[in-house]
Amino acid sequence: MGTPMAWALCLVWSLSFGGHQHAMETSVDQPRAAASLHGQTPNPHVGQTPSATFDTKGRLWVVFEQDGGVFVTQSADLGKSYGPAVRVNRDDGPISARGENRPKIAVDARGRVFVCYTRKLPTRWSGNLMFSRSLDGGQSFEAPRRLNDDVDVTGHAFAVMALNQQGHLYLAWLDGRDRVQARKEGRELVASSIYGTVSKDGGAHFAPNWRWVQGTCQCCRLAMAFDADQRPILMWRHIFGDNVRDHGIGRLVADGKELVWRRAHEDGWRIQGCPHQGPALLASRRHRTHAAWYTMQQAQPRLLVGVFDRDGVLHDGPLVIEGHMPRHPDLAEVGGTTVLVYLDDRVDAGEVALLRRDSHDGGRTWRAAATVRRAKGLVDQPALLTHDGKVYSLWQTEAGLDLIPLGMEEPAPAH
Questions:
Q1: Distance of CA 182 to the CA centre of its chain
Q2: What one-character DSSP code corresponds to residue 4?
Q3: Region class of 179: left (phi > 0), else alpha (psi between -120 and 50), else beta
Q4: I want to staple 319 with a disulfide (CB 3.0 to 4.6 A). Which of 29, 75, 305, 390 is the partner?
C-alpha cells in the first residue's frame, strides 16, 4: 500500500478517534463538544484538553480549557474532588486548545504555579504563546504575557514546559517565524522550527528565544526530559527529504542556545501532512532515555519503543507494538519499573482501550500488554504522573476525568 492509502488511513482515524487535520476548523478528539460547555461551571470533568502535575505536597494540579477560558484547579485527594477553578487568561481573544496543542502546567518547590497556552490570532493557524504564573498558591494569576519575542502573525504553539531539579523552567514550541522570513526572501519553507527559552527566576524573566531546530513537522507535540546534568532532551517529528516524517532527538549544550541532535530511527514514513502524533520521552538512569513514538510502516500503524544513549543513539529496541491503531503513548518510571501507556481500538466492541506495558530491566524487554480501562465514545490522550513512589494515568473520557492508580503488581494479560 503506497503513501496515498497510508494518508487516507491516517485521515480516517483522525476523523474517528482523535486527530485533527488542518482542513478541520474544530477538534473532534475531545470527550466534550464545545457547544455543550457554554454556561457550565468550570471543572475538569466538563472542560477539555487537561494537563496535570503533582506538587511536592501531593496535590494534583490540573489546567484545562472550557468555553474559551484557561482554568486551573487542584485536588488534595487524588482527583476525587477539586477546588474552585481559577481563570488564567483574560478576555483577550480565543485560545487554541485541542489534541496535541493544549495548555501546560508546572509547579515548583516553592509552590509557584506556571501555565502556558496559545492565544489565537486572526489569521488561520496563527497564535501567540502566552505565559502566566501564580504566586499565591493558585488563588490568582498574573496577567498573561507573550513568550514568543517576535511579532509575526504565524504559529507559536504545541508547547512543552518543564522544570528541572534546579528549578529552571524550560519551554519549547513549534514556531512559524522562519516561514514568514522565507516568504519575505522569496523562498518557500513548509516546515516549522523549534524555538525555546528558559527562566531561572521562577518565571519573572525569560531568556531571549533561541532557535533550536529548523525543519520540523508542523502539528505534532514535542516531548522534553532532563539528563543527569539537568539539561533538556527534546524529541520531535522532523521532516527529512521528501516528506519523510521520522523523529529527531537531541539535547541542549551547556549555554542552552544550541541543540545537538540526530535522527532517532529510520522509520521511513513518507506522508504529505501532519499525523498529529507526538512522541513520549523519559530520562532514566545510566544516561539512558526511553522514548515511544507513532509511525506507519508497510501501511501498518505502529508504536515504536526504544532506549537511547546520551548521544541520541538507539541502544535497545525498538520494540514494535502493533494493533488496530496504537497511539498517544506516555512513559513513566517508578523504582525499577518503566511503565508505558497508550490507546488502541477494540473495534468489535466499539471501544477504545487504555493499555499498559511494563519493563523491569530498563527497557530491554517488556511484559505483555494489559488493559487498564475501556471507554466508548470520544476519549482524550492519556498522561502518566508520578508521586511518592506511585504512578497514575490521567485519562479523560465522556464519563469525566479520571486519575487511575497503576499498581506495580504484575497485571493480567490484555484480551
A1: 28
A2: H
A3: alpha
A4: 305
**Rounded-to-integer distance, Cα 394 and Cα 410, Å:** 20
Rounded-to-10 torsion of CA 175, 179, 180, 186: 170
**Dist. CA 315–CA 330, nearest whole Å:** 19
Phi-psi region of 3 (alpha: psi -120 to 50; beta: other; left: phi over 0): alpha
Q: pLDDT of 70-118, one tens digit each?
A: 999 999 999 999 999 999 998 778 999 999 999 999 999 999 999 999 9
Q: Which of 129, 131, 110 is nearest to 120 (CA)?
A: 129
Please give the Cα distance from 243 to 233 (Å, whole number): 24
Beta strands (DSSP E) in 56-188 are 60-66, 69-75, 86-87, 95-96, 104-107, 113-120, 127-134, 145-146, 156-163, 169-175
Q: Which residues, other chains included, contact 350 with Cβ-Cβ below 8 Å and sequence gap of 6+?
A: 376
Q: Is 56 strand, coil or helix?
A: coil
**Which residue matches cell numbers 515504536?**
304
- What are the contacts of 407-415 at 24+ separation with CB within 8 A? 408/334, 408/335, 408/337, 408/358, 410/358, 410/367, 411/356, 411/358, 411/367, 411/370, 411/372, 412/370, 412/371, 413/368, 413/369, 413/370, 414/353, 414/355, 414/368, 414/369, 414/370, 414/371, 415/371
Q: Is the pLDDT of residue 390 over 50?
A: yes
- Choose among 10, 8, 36: nearest CA to 277: 10
Q: Is the pLDDT of residue 374 over 70?
A: yes
Residue 386 corresponds to which amino acid? T
What is the C-alpha radius of gyration for the chain, rounded to an integer number of angstroms?
A: 20
Q: What are phi and psi of 175, to 5 degrees?
A: -130, 135
CB atoms within 10 A of CB 130: 26
pTM for the model stands at: 0.91
Average pLDDT over residues 184-213: 97
CB contact at 8 A, 219 and 100: yes
What is the percent of the chain with per-residue pLDDT over 90, rounded to a whole number?
A: 82
Mean pLDDT, the chain, as a whole number? 90
Q: Within its chain, how far is the Cα of 57 from the centroid?
A: 24
Cis bond upstream, residue 318 (ω within 30):
yes
Residue 401's contacts (CB-CB under 8 Å, 6 or more residues apart) are 44, 45, 50, 62, 79, 394, 395
List the Cα angle 334/312/202 in 5-degree steps.
60
Q: Would you say how long the chain is, in residues?
A: 415
